[in-house]
Amino acid sequence: MPRILMTGASGGIGTSLRKLLPPIYPDLVLSDLKPPADLGSRETFKPADLADLAQVEAICEGVDGILHFGGYSVEGPWDPILQSNIIGGYNLFEAARKKGVKRIVFASSNHVVGFYPRHHRIGTDVTARPDSRYGVSKVFGEALGALYADKHGLKVTCLRIGNFGEQPLDHRRLSIWLKPEDLVQLCRIGLEHPDILFEILYGASYNERAWWDNHRAYDLGYRPSGRAEDFREHAMAEQAKLPPDPIGDFYQGGAFCGMEFDGDRSRIIDWSKR
Ligand code: 15L
Questions:
Q1: What are the chain's domains?
Q2: pTM metric for this prediction
Q3: Is 134 among the catalytic positions?
Q4: Is the CB of 109 under 6 A from ligand 1?
Q5: Which residues of 190-220 are buried (b: 16+ CB within 10 A; e: fewer)?
Q6: Which one of 29, 46, 150, 166 is separated from 40 by 20 to 30 angstroms, measured CA to CA?
């Protein structure tokens, strides 16, 4: 029975996956800075600060695979992103190497490619166009994954997660929604599939408005059960409550693109005026 470590256990994704993973991986070790408020008596929790290599090594002891959901998960000031995602990301891969962990699933993000326009369909082989300091930190995480796969033989799967949740929240999320059970499928591919060396997959359900070519995930057996269009009415009603965002509405990364933006607005096409 493989022992799986999940970092970020107290965060949004971790909270949901804590309920879905135990039937598949009964030997699941949870980690975060602080334990989840509702930690059950049958759950195993080990605290760790990702910025502290010794603490990260301690939680990697005896582990076969890691689901790395820990770190800073939105745009924010540089220092916490540096500590959690850059230093923390390095510590995670380095500790895994030292402790002989075989596989890592790294929670990357759609914000790695957020500055691609929505009308531009992309695969996983395009140049990174991050939309935020947070997005840059995820590009760094993917690069770490490639290095540790190629140089040290770790089997690494980077999931460029769209928007994780029970349903798509607005117009943009109809293209990038990821149902929790579909994330579980992708995690299992990363932890178990015999052909994994280094992969980048999009963490998205079956979304007819997708901007991403995710054929590699399908080749590896991914069969998502979530279909964003089933929630179209709700998502569009929520969208109607939001103010227009000319930059965010044009690019794939949405609101993160418009934050602190003082670039060239002439590149942005306002489709509503056409
Ligand atoms: C992410 O990467 C974030 O972690 C999440 O909070 C959302 O902002 C999501 O992307 C998104 O793009 O909707």
A1: 4-273 (3.40.50.720)
A2: 0.97
A3: yes
A4: yes
A5: bbeeeebebbbbbbbbbbebbbbebeebeeb
A6: 166
